[in-house]
Design a protein that fits this description.
This is 3-isopropylmalate dehydrogenase. By secondary structure, the protein is an alpha/beta fold. The protein contains twelve helices and 14 strands. The structure holds 1,4-dihydronicotinamide adenine dinucleotide (NAI), 2-OXO-4-methylpentanoic acid and magnesium ion.
Length: 368
């Protein structure tokens, strides 16, 4: 199959982790006889520096024509003093909005060899396998007005949603639950926020269409607690943009590192932007220390969700498992008696593992 992939490295560790994932995609293409072509474009701080805007027009038009988009991360202290509308993060928010990527799927599943890498007790982490379905193009990150007022003595941000925006993400979450364990937890703050009360109404209406799914409501503060005390309780979590952003970083603790969590930002027709959950990690950028596995696993999600290449995606996930099982890990992970490798070495090991054709283990056994 022929597929055209747009790569948006972005800032900080973004270029390192996207380079790593691109290498693994090239291995997939070789192994399975596909032809993947790549086109790189700027976004975020790099685009501000070179083109004066965090989201250049040519980046948008290339993404619109792509079969799949792979993004690293944006932002960093260099651009922190810019006004809000000029910041690197606006580039990422902008591309999600312009492409209509309303559903952010963040699977949280620990690899077995990393069971002890989490600071949580192994018996708490073991068996956790959840999916956060985060609304991605509405809510506080997009609401207007968002501004300083009264000579800087006041400030306002706006949390706005249309009923339609809620309905489509809630539908997506019910459908995700149907192909998993039929358990949906809708997370909100309905005791305080009007938007959350509408969100609950939408979930209540939609549940009539999915009678096989067991659905419940949970307040976000309680959900945050339960995620680290009883993560095995959850199957699919659906929530609005900011709550999903925060809960997914928290959930990464289950997997041992933020550097392990992949994500897919998708719309109904299958186009997707695939991006690690983490940010640009300026504290380790340029040191070849970053864990590339979140981005490599995001590339596997691209193969599965946008290209319908399930066997190829399985192959990547099995290779990640094998390499971790052989106790190779990057600096963010702690594997007892393991060998620490750099980010680029880790990526090389994944490709080598795939080329060795020794990743025949049942994928179901990869996860804790
Ligand atoms: N999707 C995106 O582009 C995102 C961008 N950001 C931006 O990134 C910048 C830094 O934000 P932070 O709050 O520091 O969040 P961050 O996610 O970049 O880093 C948080 C911590 O996790 C570590 N970390 C993150 N990814 C890692 C990886 N792959 N391997 C090893 N360690 C990893 C970092 O070293 C840091 O200690 C900010 O400018 C922020 O706006 C933050 C989150 C998401
Ligand atoms: C620009 C931010 C909203 C990025 C982020 O933290 C995320 O999407 O997880
Ligand atoms: Mg985030």
């Amino acid at each position: 199959m022929e597929k055209h992939i747009v790569v948006l490295p972005g800032d900080g560790i973004g270029p390192e982790v996207t380079k790593a994932a691109k290498g693994v995609l090239e291995t997939v293409a070789e192994q399975f006889g596909h032809r993947f072509t790549f086109e790189t474009h700027e976004i975020g701080g790099a685009a501000i520096d070179n083109q004066g805007t965090p989201l250049p027009e040519d980046t948008i038009s290339a993404c619109k024509k792509a079969d799949g988009i792979l993004l690293g991360a944006v932002g960093g202290p260099k651009w922190d003093s810019l006004p809000g509308h000029m910041r690197p993060e606006k580039g990422l928010l902008g591309i999600r909005k312009q492409l209509g990527l309303f559903a952010n799927l963040r699977p949280v599943k620990g690899f077995k060899p990393l069971l002890h890498a989490s600071p949580l007790k192994p018996e708490v982490v073991e068996g956790s396998d959840l999916l956060i379905v985060r609304e991605l193009t509405g809510g506080l990150y997009f609401g207007e007005p968002s501004e300083r007022r009264n000579n800087g003595k006041e400030v306002v941000d706006t949390l706005a949603y249309s009923r339609y925006e809620m309905e489509r993400i809630v539908d997506k979450a019910f459908q995700s639950a149907q192909v998993r364990r039929n358990h949906l937890t809708s997370v909100d703050k309905a005791n305080v926020l009007e938007s959350s009360r509408m969100w609950r109404e939408v979930v209540e209406e939609k549940k009539q269409d999915y009678p096989d799914v067991n659905v419940e409501h949970m307040l976000v503060d309680a959900a945050a607690m339960k995620l680290v005390t009883n993560p095995g309780y959850f199957d699919v979590i659906v929530t609005e943009n900011m709550f999903g952003d925060i809960l997914s970083d928290e959930a990464s603790v289950l997997t041992g590192s933020l550097g392990m969590l992949p994500s897919a930002s998708i719309r109904q027709d299958g186009l997707g932007l695939y991006e690690p959950v983490h940010g640009s990690a300026p504290d380790i950028a340029g040191e070849d220390k970053a864990n590339p596995l979140a981005t490599i696993l995001s590339a596997a999600m691209m193969l599965r969700h946008s290209f319908n290449m399930n066997e190829e995606a399985d192959e990547i996930e099995a290779a990640v498992h094998s390499v971790l099982n052989n106790k190779y890990h990057t600096a963010d992970l702690d594997i007892n008696g393991g060998s620490q490798v750099s980010g680029s070495e880790m990526a090389k090991k994944i490709s080598e593992q795939m080329n060795s054709h020794d990743t025949t283990e049942n994928i179901m056994r990869c996860y804790a």
